[in-house]
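look at this record:
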Amino acid sequence: MSVDCGTTGCGVGLTPEQRRVLREHGTERPGSSPLNDEKRPGVYHCAGCGEPLFDSDRKYDSGSGWPSFWAPKDDAVATTRDVSLGMLRTEVHCANCEGHLGHVFPDGPAPTGLRYCMNGVALDFRPA
């Protein structure tokens, strides 16, 4: 079930940077997220609504400067076509609140060959 948060709903308690990324489709600076170095077992949740999105055993160091995963949890994310920078990309958003998470690219590791390149401020890591 999708929750329509609009531009203000589901944003209570978000920092200005989280609101900019999740609700206004912004991007954090590469290398700025402490989640790049997070190695503990756990689950990455949507910072906008709390839905579980990615298991830590699917995270890897892509060298991109953003937390990267080779697959999300089942039915946790949805995608849309993004041509905002004059190029075709695939945007990834939370399937529950539609918050912008990042983009997915076809240059990831096996078994999917995908790189879910996520904004760290859009994620809330909860250790196991």
Remarks:
- Strands lie at 42-46, 52-55, 59-60, 68-69, 77-82, 89-94, 100-105, 115-118, 123-127.
- Helices lie at 16-24.
- The longest helix spans residues 16-24.
- The two ends are 26 Å apart (CA to CA).
